[in-house]
Amino acid sequence: MTRPLAVVDSSDPLACLVALRHALSGDGPAVLFRGGGVNPVQTAPLEVEKRIALVVETSGSTGTPKRVALTADAVLASAAASNGALGDPGQWLLALPVHYIAGINVLARSLAASIPPVPVAPGRMDAATVLAAIGRMTEKVRYTALVPAQLGRLIDEADEDAALREALAGFSRILVGGQSTPAALVDRARAHGWRVTRTYGSSETCGGVVYDGRPIGQSTVRIVDGRVELGGPTIAEYYLGDPERTASAFVEHDEHRWYRTDDAGELVDGVLRVTGRLDDTIVTGGLKVRLGDVERVVREQPGLSDAVVVAGHHPEWGEVPVVVTTARPDLATVRRAVGAVLPPEARPDRVMTVNALPTLPSGKPDRLAIAERARP
């Protein structure tokens, strides 16, 4: 049996909230939210299997976008796990686009708590727009979810704006995810009294299922040959119209389904540590270097929280790490910092300063575009 799939414009988050409610309850069509800056999903079918309530198009931050099919049970399990991990039900400040899973999760958690979210006005986040949105919140228990770039921007604003600093200190929890969040950024936020939790997950897991390294709800984590695999009731059913990719990403073991991420990681005393992507290894001078390891060290340096490390060409060494950032750091200082933690071959060959880093609509760095800029 099938049900209709409605492609819904995400420019009105509260209208999306209503559409999601009907999709999850089964008295409306399944939904795919489409952002104004995202090309329409021309190949999306007009119908999906009856068990599918939500289709999410991935950002394609490192490859071809995929369309992830999720059931109502998965979406509600994700909301229940998050609300359970956070504690008391509260009101959400919606600061993320709802055509990506992190924004959709804010809607789902709001539905589960029966408390409408408060959207931040579209456009670049600043103290004025955030404070205006917070001023419309009616509940004492408050939450929000951000990507690291948003957190960094708000920290910079709060350094000079006591009202913003105090307003966000009143939130019960600020979730930060979507990409690696530098420890230095978290430390700065906590110095303001902000309660920050780093999350890990993806569209395929209906959003973050690991909070500060530990799985939430009924989610589970395992490491298979160095690869992070995630299991539990929030796992997606399949990729729409892509059985080959589905078979590669979703596996069954001992009657449990697992999503095979592209991340490398390790479990230490039950705490997950993501060490980088499995596909970000380059060979420089015959030696392997994982760009994620280099980027993690670089982003811990003062003023470099936005840095992205990509592969560049070198006539002698082949591939080399290249730092791309909006700052103007001293190359020798960056090389010393990396060399103090990683082998000599991991030291960046050069720094490229840009006016603005290319980003995807989700706010994540567009690594493919950045890598193109780093090539001669």
- Residue ranges: pLDDT <50 for 5 or more in a row? 37-43
Strand order, sheet with most strands: 7-6-8-9-10-11-12
* Distance, first to last CA: 53 Å
Number of helices: 11
The top level CATH class name of the largest domain: Alpha Beta
Major beta sheet, specifics?
A: 7 strands, mixed
Percent in helix: 25-40%
Alpha-beta classification:
alpha/beta
What general outline do the C-alpha atoms trace?
globular
Give the C-alpha Rg.
Answer: 21 Å
CATH superfamily of the largest domain: ANL, N-terminal domain
Describe the structure.
- By secondary structure, this protein is α/β, with parallel strands linked by helices.
- The chain has two domains: 2-271, 3-Layer(aba) Sandwich (Rossmann fold), CATH 3.40.50; 280-374, 2-Layer Sandwich (GMP Synthetase, Chain A, domain 3).
- Helices cover 30% and strands 32% of the residues.
- It is globular and about 60 Å long.
- The N and C termini lie far apart (53 Å).
Short description:
The chain has 376 residues and is of the alpha/beta class. The chain is 30% helix and 32% strand.
Features:
2 domains, 376 residues, GMP Synthetase, Chain A, domain 3, single chain, globular, 11 helices, 30% helix, alpha/beta, Rossmann fold, 23 strands
Sequence-ordered SSE layout with sheet pairings:
Blueprint (H helix, E strand, L loop, with lengths): L1 E8 L3 H13 L4 E5 L12 E3 L2 E6 L9 E5 H15 L4 E4 L6 H13 L4 E2 L7 H9 L6 E5 L1 H13 L1 H8 L3 E4 L6 H9 L4 E7 L4 E5 L2 E2 L4 E5 L2 E5 L6 E2 L3 H7 E4 L2 E13 L2 E7 L3 E4 L2 E4 H9 L8 E7 L3 E8 L5 H9 L10 E4 L13 H8 L2
Parallel strand pairs: 1-2, 6-7, 6-8, 8-9, 9-10, 22-23
Antiparallel strand pairs: 1-3, 4-5, 5-15, 10-11, 11-12, 13-14, 14-17, 16-17, 17-18, 19-20, 21-22
Helix pairs in contact: 1-3, 2-3, 5-6
